[in-house]
Predict the 3D structure of the following.
Amino acid sequence: MYAMLGDVRFELLGSFIDLEETHGASYAKHEVLAGRPRLQAMGNELTQIRFGLKLHWKLGDVDAAYKGLIAAKEAQQAVSLVFGSGRFVGWFVIESLTARTLLQDGRGRTAARELDVSLTEFVGDPNNPLPTPGVANGQNPLLAMLPESVRAPLSKVADAVQTGVRIYRSVEQEVGQLQTLIAHARELKHDPLALLGVVGDAVNLGGTALGKLNKLPEIGKYIGNLSGAAEMLAYGGQAARELSGGLAALRNGAQSGTVGGWLEGGAAAIASVADSLNSGARGAQSLTAWLAGRKDGSK
């Protein structure tokens, strides 16, 4: 976890792209008959914080932080800002939130979004101050969020998580490259020989990605019930089945030596693989945050 604003959790890969704090003080100015005006300190202004987020589907759920912040703003209640190190910044209200949609897919789903959030310090009743969140007690809040069964240092678990996340991210990149190759092949329908050559490259690349995905179930045995593990493994398995079917269609079509409907069928299957990986990306992000927590405070 990178930070939390109320109940909205920001992971390491979705951390702030900019963070600005404004601290001020107010003074009363008294004019005098001769000489320069005199200033009288009246007190400190409320702290202003502005931060920006850039959310992308490859880093997790694009809508989760957005919807959480909207809900917090609509509630018009003070929320605490706490960083992953356990540092409690204070209580704030969300004064404004600006969202810019940068990218959408063919179904109108948001794939990338930028957010600008403005916070104003909330003081409340000085005689009855709001309590400091429990995470600010010197204990790393990342470690406190671990299931009891894995709270002790377990290097095998950490190694498995790191390997699993690395595989997942690597396959995401390779499937993106695979889609590019398929798109290129579809442009070569009038040049069958060149098309079959590109499809052959796609099948080889897809085979590499499939081999990696097929390793996830075994790795999952060591990850256990960590937050995000079931999600990443389930969608990774679904992607493996879809990729296997898509590669079989492409391979059989290429072996036929003719260009037919098999290319469109293979392209649709690969698109489904990308959708499945996108759906499981939030789980991979949660596991990445767990790794960050161990590096931050686990021995």
The radius of gyration is 26 Å.
